[in-house]
Predict the structure.
Amino acid sequence: MNLEQLLVTSKKTIDGPIYTFKQVREYYESVNSKNNFIVKQIGISKLTEWNFDTLKNLSHKSGRFFKVVKVKNKNYESGILLQDELGTLGVLTCIYKDVLHFLVQFKKEPGNIISSQLSPTLQATLSNQNKVHGGNAPKYLELFENIIKENILFRASLPEQGNRYWKKYNDNVILKGDYFEEDENYRWMTLGQIYEFSNIDNSINSCLRSVLSLLHKSEYKNIKYSEKIKNIKNMTKLQKLNNPELKNSVIDFYSEKEDKLIFENIDDKFEINGISITIEDREVSKWDQPIVFDFNLSEYVFVSILQDNKRMYLFKEMYEPGYKNGFNLGPTFTLKKTINQNLIDNFKQIFGDATTPTLINEFEMSEEGGRFFQTRVKHSYYEIVLNSAINNVEGFQILDDDEVRHINNLGLLTMEARSLLFFANFIYN
């Protein structure tokens, strides 16, 4: 079978030749039933290995991992995570009895709502890979070192959130390999089994959603540049002329009374507080760290347009300070609790009063628990059927399946959009 056939078969296979879905779900529940996961809020000043450095930025004593620094963007200043290293989000696959399987890690993170989530085979920063934390190297790291080109199914350098990270990218890679008996906290799963977990809130972590957003029936090399793709690439060149700036002295945002960093402007609000963690079955079992509290997020909305039996997707141009290209394409709408937003009004501004959107599906998933504390966001999918062609919408891009695939490979979809795309590939295909 070719790759397209393997993906289709894997997506349709709920009870696989290695495990049934019931077995995988029972394992997931057993991992999460263990009482070996303790997280406490302790405040910034109580962090043992983090402090405000000579430049008054919040840093780790090693100078590695990440820093919290100031960013100046247009007419406001805020905070942003600076992490000058490329992380790896890697998924290993194998074909077992003619069914494509993915080696999924049941990974515990301090900010997870449920203690462990379905995660990539390898999810590690360069600092963790180099054991800066003083613990063990991540499991299966060796499989993603010195990668042979012929074993790569999909690969792209993709960005993190542009309002939270400064030009941070991860190597997202899916490799083919051979079957072997997996270690504890790992399971070989079909694509269908992974998608079944969409019915369990906050069960699939954002890193796995990011990597698997690369899955596509078409070979990347066979996708030609459309005029639309060329125009979007030209837009990135223009936006680079308006780059925001990094600044020092993030301590300006420190509240001694609340013992946390508080950032707020007209468009955004979040905090950074300290936590202590005790987790068994990790490279390091106990540590403390700063983490982002982002309770402002409410909903990511993804709109697809169906016209003459062709499906297209509506992405919003997101001009956020942390994108090295100046902008990326994000969800159609991103709704926040602190801003009075009416979803129907948003639709009317684009499509007018005559068009009625239909809610197709919705899921609740959370942001990555290593940096975000229990940030849960509803993912909503709407469909609009049009009888006539839609004109370009200012501030948005309308893309078909192949164009979305190409834009994603170019690293021009936001983390939030890739999360939506992961489920869209299940809903619409």
